[in-house]
Design brief:
Layout lengths: L11 H27 L21 H6 L1 H12 L2 E6 L2 E6 L3 H7 L3 E2 H9 L1 H6 L11 H11 L3 H20 L4 E2 L2 E2 L5 H17 L1 H4 L2 H18 L8 H14 L2 H29 L9 H7 L9 H32 L2 H30 L18 H6 L1 H14 L3 E7 L3 E2 L5 E2 L4 E5 H5 L38
Parallel strand pairs: 2-9
Antiparallel strand pairs: 1-2, 3-6, 4-5, 6-9, 7-8
Length: 482
């Protein structure tokens, strides 16, 4: 990184000296930097720190007032990498091509960063008895090994419970001029998501349990409070007290015990049916939910007991339910802001279901002609389920969602903490213990997004191979890599 400096000349005889000084200092600095780099020293001091506005002691106020304007100023003045003082910490902002390096390098830990800022690891450990120091690897394995392979099945189940809960909740609101007035959509989506998540994670029996639903929603409120410390400056004393509260009081244990009480009779009944099937020499039809799969793989995941299983389930619930409710709420606000899109999306929805219904009817006729039975999955009553096949045909909906994600994300997000000194491809070394944050603006408002990147264009991605579920260097709402 180079800097230019100029000095006024006092006389012609001093001009050569003044001209040579910056050059000589530059050579000396380069030699010192080379020596430090060879010795493995940190080069964080080479990353420029953004200046403060007059009267500001941190960048928090300027960032909150206008994130785009703040980052535009910093990028213009300092380039793709610079330091800021946010949330009570000195943080390095990473932009451009170095973003992928952060995500793909195991030496950068998002878990460590959020533990430092929020105490999230301590918070989660108050719920579980095992796997305390695994960076949530067990949770990741459950998602990849159990949830992802069954997404097609779970999608239909989720839809059913979302619709049932939505009909029930909206019926409680007053109607004015044939319109339903909802003051705040978040509680509705939180309850809808709780029922859907309960059906997928713990089975249909749990989805009907008021105790389970209440536990899920109460735990989400605790989870949201924990994240308050990552979105504003919090004193070290408060953070320390926050972690101590988690260690001593274990607030999530109350929710874990509620889940244990609710699931124990369900599990006992399942075991009774399994034993009865074994005695009769028939195969037991295993429930298709995450809890059953976790119990079946009890030793593989190193669980201790049912409380431990419920603790891990609760962590899954917290991470999925909070994000699902938040995204659904944001989606409604974007639809309200662009009401002309609603009719277009509804027509696309109906047309996609019509096509799927025709395809399923054709499959049924082919089975009948071949003399084969029609399985439950092809029953006509399921023709208009919002299946994975139907969703793939809703290209405008997918584009709207991707564009919503592009605008929804915080401009600085996805914190990581360096576990070792890490050398980036541009030659800069991020020192061990340093926190970095991704400049989402540089990815989501870059040239790859097409024209008018600062405007919400709902059909921006129609006809392009850019699905709302696929991460890439220009689409990072879910992060990248592990």
């Amino acid at each position: 990184m180079s800097m230019l400096a100029s000095y006024p000349s006092a006389s012609a005889s001093l001009e050569l000296i003044w001209a040579a000084l910056p050059f000589g200092i530059g050579l000396a600095s380069a030699a010192l930097v080379t020596a430090k780099k060879a010795a493995g020293w940190s080069l964080n001091n080479l990353i420029p720190t953004a200046s403060l506005r007059p009267g500001d002691s941190t960048h928090d106020t300027e960032f909150k007032e206008d994130q785009d304007a703040f980052l535009t100023r910093c990028e213009t003045e300092y380039g793709s990498m610079f330091n800021v003082n946010l949330h009570g910490k000195h943080i390095t902002v990473i932009s451009g091509s170095e973003i992928q390096e952060v995500f793909m390098n195991d030496s950068f830990s998002p878990t460590d960063a959020f533990e430092e800022m929020t105490g999230i690891q301590t918070f989660f450990n108050s719920a579980r008895k095992s796997n305390h120091n695994d960076d949530l690897h067990i949770i990741h394995r459950v998602i990849s090994q159990i949830i992802t392979p069954k997404l097609a099945l779970f999608t239909v189940r989720i839809q059913e419970h979302l619709e049932t809960t939505l009909d029930k909740r909206l019926g409680a609101y007053a109607r004015r001029d044939n319109r339903i007035i909802v003051e705040e959509p978040w509680p509705i989506f939180k309850e809808m998501s709780a029922h859907a998540v309960a059906a997928v994670f713990m089975g249909p029996e749990s989805a009907q349990s008021p105790e389970v639903i209440d536990t899920f929603m109460a735990s989400i409120d605790d989870f949201a409070k924990m994240f308050e410390s990552s979105t504003r400056s919090v004193s070290l004393l408060r953070k320390t007290l926050f972690r101590a509260t988690h260690r001593i009081l274990s607030p999530l244990q109350v929710h874990v015990q509620s889940l244990v009480q609710a699931t124990t009779p369900i599990i006992l009944e399942r075991r009774r049916r399994e034993m009865d099937a074994a005695e009769r020499g028939v195969e037991w039809e295993r429930p298709d939910d995450v809890m059953q799969s976790m119990l079946d793989n009890f030793d593989t995941y190193n669980f201790v007991d049912l409380e431990d299983v419920c603790g891990h389930l609760l962590i899954l619930v917290l991470t999925s339910l909070h994000s699902t409710s938040d995204v659904a709420t944001k989606m409604m606000y974007f639809l309200a802001a662009f009401p002309d899109c609603i009719g277009i999306l509804y027509r696309e929805h109906q047309e996609a279901l019509d096509i799927v219904q025709q395809e399923r009817e054709q499959m049924r006729q082919e089975l009948i002609q071949r003399g084969l039975p029609i399985g439950e999955q092809l029953y006509p009553s399921r023709d208009r389920d919002v299946s994975a096949a139907a969703l793939k045909k809703m290209v405008r909906l997918d584009s709207f969602i991707r564009e919503m994600f592009r605008f929804r994300s915080e401009k600085l997000n996805m914190y990581h903490r360096a576990r070792n000194d890490v050398a980036l491809s541009n030659g800069v070394v991020i020192a061990k213990g340093r926190t970095v944050v991704i400049n989402m603006r540089s990815a989501h408002q870059g040239p790859d997004q097409g024209p008018e990147v600062t405007k919400f264009r709902p059909w921006r991605f129609v006809g392009k191979s850019k699905a709302a579920t696929k991460v890439a260097a220009d689409f990072l709402p879910f992060g990248m890599g592990k």
